[in-house]
Amino acid sequence: MPRAEVGTPKYLANKMKSKGLQRLRWYCQVCEKQCRDENGFKCHAQSEAHLRQMLVVGENAGRHIADFSSQFQHDFVQLLSRRYNTKRVRVNQVYQEFIQDKSHLHMNATRWVTLTEFAKHLGRSGIARVDETEKGWFIAWIDSSPKALAKQEASIKKDRATRDDEQRERTLIAEQIERAKLEKGASDEGSASPPVEEGLKREEGAEKVVLSFSAKPAATSDTTATAAPTGLKLTSVKLGANPLKANPLKRPNVFKSAAPVKSESSEGSGGNDKKRPAPMSAAERLIVEEQERKRRRMDRESVA
């Protein structure tokens, strides 16, 4: 039975009946006819039109299969590149979108029996990157256009320049570390024997320091004077007793001269002893000065 012409009611009725996807094994790519069941496909295969088409294809079957395969690959890769670009996606997901078009080229007319073999072929050809996981086969398109290649080359150059700068910095840092280690080793060798702390040592020929807490001796004549020892002498001064503390009820006579003190030194065997007053304490001097001021004030008042 001849095919209905385009635009006729029979053609529209056939299109409405064939709405949606049908079984791939009941599709005849040579005649581009989709059958609804196995019986319909068997009847189509025995029809005169199908036999004539198969005779034409049989004359050069390899060329026809190669044409169908290249057309299927071109359409599939075009959908992959436009829809997903270089994104990694499942192969079956791309194929489901590809067969949604009813006028697409079916896989049973190509040299690939399964979708897995087709995905492996794309990976071997360098068209896409293919890997197998637990969830299935995944595919990612490789953009080989001149613009993409130029962009990729520029990115590679930039990465190489950055890597060279980093390598140069690492080399400089390594050289500085080596230089610091050498300097540290040299300093450690120079200071291998640490200086030994020595105690206080007196130099030979230095003057001996003498501390004396005794009273300073009296001056003597030149004939009998002896050389005094060199050094620092501290003379102790004996403070007299406080007259106010001796007897608080009796005030002492500050005008009374102090008892003479016999000198310890003499000017020879026949010399006379010199007498000198005993030194007064600071309190005694203050009391004497105060009494002297009072006496002068009383004398001025009496004269007036």
UniProtKB/TrEMBL annotation:
SMART domains: Kin17_mid. One of its GO terms (molecular function) is double-stranded DNA binding. Residues 52-178 form the DNA/RNA-binding protein Kin17 WH-like domain. Residues 178-204, 242-304 are annotated as: Disordered. Keywords: Metal-binding, Zinc, Zinc-finger. The keyword Coiled coil does not apply. GO terms for cellular component: nucleus. Residues 178-187, 286-304 have a biased composition (Basic and acidic residues). GO terms for biological process: DNA damage response; DNA replication. The keyword Lipoprotein does not apply. It holds the Pfam family WH_KIN17. Belongs to the KIN17 family. This is DNA/RNA-binding protein Kin17 WH-like domain-containing protein. The lineage of its organism: Eukaryota, Fungi, Dikarya, Basidiomycota, Agaricomycotina.
